[in-house]
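ARCHIVE ENTRY
Sequence with per-residue tokens
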Amino acid sequence: MVIIGNEWDKLLKDEWEKPYYQKLKAFLKQEYKNHSVFPHMDDIFNALKYTSYSCVKAVILGQDPYHGVNQAHGLCFSVKKGVAVPPSLSNIFKELYNDCKVNPPNHGELTDWAKSGVLLLNTVLTVRESAANSHQNKGWEILTDKIIGLLNERDSDKPTVFILWGANAQRKIPLLTNPKNLILKGVHPSPLSANRGGFFGGRYFSRANTFLKEHGVSEINWTIN
């Protein structure tokens, strides 16, 4: 049984006993035993731990965790303090400054965003070292689709901003059927994609806050300390 420590426990309690998750659990047990896998087991569900269901104002969807040593800690695009800021996150910080004049921090940990109501969710929550996408199609997508669906279904007084960068994240659009929510799309912030155009200038951060304010929801504090 997975213990998150907030509302997600009740909302997801049935998932842990379903066949897909039991199969995923058995797979992960062998992976963590025989390989170097990220993030640490205690950090797998950090996105949910930091941002409870009713506190979610925006969702940023990533693909799978960083696969380098000491990088991933359960929040998409985020790395632990003391670890070099990855190129994709550096581009996110550039867009944040251009959009909101928020100065980039001297680290890449996005925990402050999570505490401010941004669910930093990867669609796959674990990965083998140096093997991107190695845990795709093992069951994580079923769970994270459930999480996205639960947020999509929230009452109209809890509008949500979904920030979808890149084709992988945008494949989740069919799950987002609630017209009360806002979908912001852009190309992936990785240098290969972002420098071709379509990421910079998207003003995702200010547009998210404008939408939230218009719907009576307090704005996200995008500043990172």
User: Anything to note?
Assistant: DSSP finds nine helices and six strands in the chain. The beta strands are 37-38, 58-62, 118-122, 127-128, 161-165, 182-186. The first strand starts at residue 37 and ends at 38. The chain has a mean pLDDT of 95.
